[in-house]
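the three lines:
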Amino acid sequence: MELSLTARNVLLGATMLGALGGMLGSFALLRRQSLLGDALAHAALPGVCLAFLLTGSKSPLPLFVGALVAGLAGSLLILATVRWSRIKEDSAIGIVLSVFFGIGIVLLTYIQKLPTGNQSGLDKYLFGQAATLVKEDLQVMAVLGAVVVAAVALFYKELKVLSFDPGFGASLGLPMKRLEILLTLLLVIVVVVGLQTVGVVLIVATLITPAAAARQWTDRLGAMVLLSAGIGAVAGVIGSLVSATVPRLPTGPVIVVVSSGVLIVSLLFAPRRGLLWALLQERRVAGRIRRENLLKDLYLAGEREGSFAGFVSWPQLMGVRGQTSGELARSARPLERAGLLEREGDALRLTRAGLAEAESVVRKHRLWELYLTRRLELPSDHVHRDAEAMEHALTDEAVERLEELLGFPAVDPHGRPIPARGRAA
Amino acid sequence: MAIPGIFRARVAPETAAAGEAEEAARPRVAGAAPAVEVHDLTVAYRTQPVLWDVDLQLPEGKLIAIVGPNGAGKSTLLKAILGLVPAVTGWVQIFGEPYARRRSWVGYVPQRESVDWDFPTSALDVVTMGLYGQIGWFRRPGKRHRETALASLEKVGMREYAHRQISQLSGGQQQRVFLARALAQDARLYLMDEPFAGVDATTERAILTLLKELRATGRTVVAVHHDLQTVAEYFDHVVLLNMRLVAAGPVTTTFTAENLQRTYGGRLTVLTQASEALLQKRSVEGIAAGGTGEGEPWS
Amino acid sequence: MSPTLVILLVASCVAASCALVGSFLVLRKMALLGDAISHAVLPGIAIAFLVTGDRAALPMVLGAGALGLITVMLVELFNRSRRLREDASIGVVFPALFSLGVILISRYASQVDLDLDCVLYGEIAYTPWDTLTVSGSDVGPKALWVNGAILLANLVFVSLLGKELKLSTFDGGLAASLGFSPTVLHYLLMSAVSITVVGAFESVGAILVVAMLVVPPATAYLLTERLGWMIGLAVALGVASAGAGYAIARWLDCSIAGAMASVAGLMFVAALLFSPGHGLLARLLIHRRMGNRLAGELLLLHLQKGGEGLPVVTLERRFGWDPRRLHRVLGRLLRQGWVERAGEGLRLTARGAQALEASGRAQLAHRL
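prediction for all of em together
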């Protein structure tokens, strides 16, 4: 695909912004300052306008300095308000965000009515117009980006301590206050870089959304920072390409929609932290518990009969736990396939292997009951419920230790025999 | 936080000035200086004094408990020793020098609840943070630091969990990771904020063993402690604190019912709990001493 | 009605309804949820517009209200899943929804007068000419009807459920035990916020809604201790900033909504600095005074402890204070006659001992 010069500029700018935003967003997310970036972006607007009013120039550098100063002023105001008054952080952020923006709008509309103001193009900072990025903008971006990356790389381990345990960091003699200011400064730089590309409102998403997505995939800060930068960059690439090919599709919102899509996928499908994974895990455990319970029910029926050779009828098994026929079948079928059950018409019995499995479950149950009554001195009529849960949770190693601890007992607190290990097998 | 501008004490006077009459008794030999020396320390949050005129000397090589009711300023005392909160008056010295010069001699174990355990990092990584002071700016932890960190994890029985994400550790294991981080610093003085709070029995035993090992190698441990019943069993020295210093000294002579009464005032539940512990201890000791009750500090 | 009057009335309605619900947002530490809702209603408005094809008020209010509730639910869902914290949940939800809204509008509705800039800062100046026609006859400006109705609804809401909201704000557990479900109240409040935001959206735009929701209530919060007063004051401040903002906008020929937010901000800064109870200046003075008192008491206590003629250098070293500061405090104590010179040093006078006794610090010393 042949890209126009504009499209190439957009692509470059969006990718750089995505990577920088994702990188710093990781720290903001972990320090629970997700919305600080939002406030900084809004606070930067009056700075841009004032810089234009003072210098009358549209070149990136003075506008950038204006935004930087206003953004820093906004963040300091938030800090000071929270620290020295009864106003809470959420209100302080809301106040700085909306009032600075209001002042910015006043200045902006004022400038637009000036004779020179019409062509100022400052309103691109509201929604961002990536298409207006010129080479000079990109050069400023690249230099600032390099500064940000270098700072994060050089101070990586200090920033890590700052994000995890600032009190401990201070006890090591690290200048935590100064590092905090450094991090805020870097955040302001990225926010200002982003103003022109995605606009005031959406900057927060270029910071937080990739970081939140990356967090789901990894448990290491370094990996998270890199992954987050990667997600941000990819969203930038896709967003700018899509908006270049489809007419009337603004770049910023498309970037945000793409990274939000990545976040949703991450929240659902990431291994271990993914919600779907957790759900599956839960269902796996529930299924195993149901199957173990069926084996145990068959064992107990056999114990009552004095023989495990007989078949137990389907309705009787349904009656034990009030299961429907379907539920019972769902537990029975995999056990049958695994060769632990035999089925004859409408009745089930344990195979040799199934008996061994069932014994192991019953063993855990009864050993735990005994442990609770002997060691924790709970009354024997109070221990069944607890054992009902523990029989599915105890590991083989724990059972062995338990048996040892209890002196290899033969009967449980209710006088029923505790199956020995591996007797049936 | 105390208000800047109202007053801010220097952490310690110039050592040259320390020659006054009542200071003459202070040991001048560097090695013989007490582990922690606190003089006229007052700390205020805004205008509310939290610690009031505390004078304290803590000996080296002992296990020392700081005990007192909620809001007595126990954590604040640790933080003031570390210079984490500014003092209104007074100064602190560690082994005869201001903290800034003794930083590498001190290991700090904050309260477990003070951090976000869902942070994306491993146990080994957290322990390595203890070495960041030694590693210095702009440098990455190297193999040597990794070895040190692993060895510290080994000491608290957590080596096999080195690569676990910290949220997957139990509360007791998290506490042990924090201890390992302090161990990695290889300090002479350890300041611990409630190391026994909310841990399981196994961890409690492990921590205790560790503290005793530290003492055996001549280290000093100062720990904020909540459980009055175990003070006498776990610690050598006790500091009773309730905004002011009530008493400090060896457990046997300082941890008395009278001092506890003065520390906790009329808080009956605590007192009952404590006196039960005292009674128990007394009867055990009474039996051990053949019922003579001699040298009896509890009357 | 003159256009000026219409604009002022609309702005006052918006400011008052925002202050009514915003007070509870501020007290419940949910100001940023209001921010999120104010952005996230955009796709609701866009969808209502695309479905009905015109800018009829009711579908837009319904569409936007629904999106407001969806925002709250999504934030809560993420939060509950414990994969994201609340600040992050807010920070990912509203930009995503806002982006969808912008995309819908620029793709499908860019020819019509849903101007994107107005989404952010509104265009209240046009409200007098956007009139509502009922069965052929012109009944007056639409925005006035919509925002008037919303104000009325909010008034009813707060007067009916104010007590319950207050209870669940300060003691959720107690409220639940008395049978007022905090969840139900939470969603009721959020519905009220959503509808308020929609009404205000066209007039003052998304971000300036936040100013109206948060700034006057926060200002009132600095000025009073009582909830009823706080709400009333917030309404008054909101209406006042609307009026003053309009005047300034006329004078400077700039955005009306922006000027209103700026005035509200100025009022907040004034309260932050000068509020008698919670202002920074008042606090600074109190801290100064208390700090000086504390310093004096500390010195008295040390002189008491130190006995006769404690040299100033000893005090200087012990306290580690800046010598100028020490001398200032000592000077005051000397003037008050609580301390007197004794040879090379200082000692406590009988009056000083009395003062120390009276301060309560000595009792503290005695008690221990």
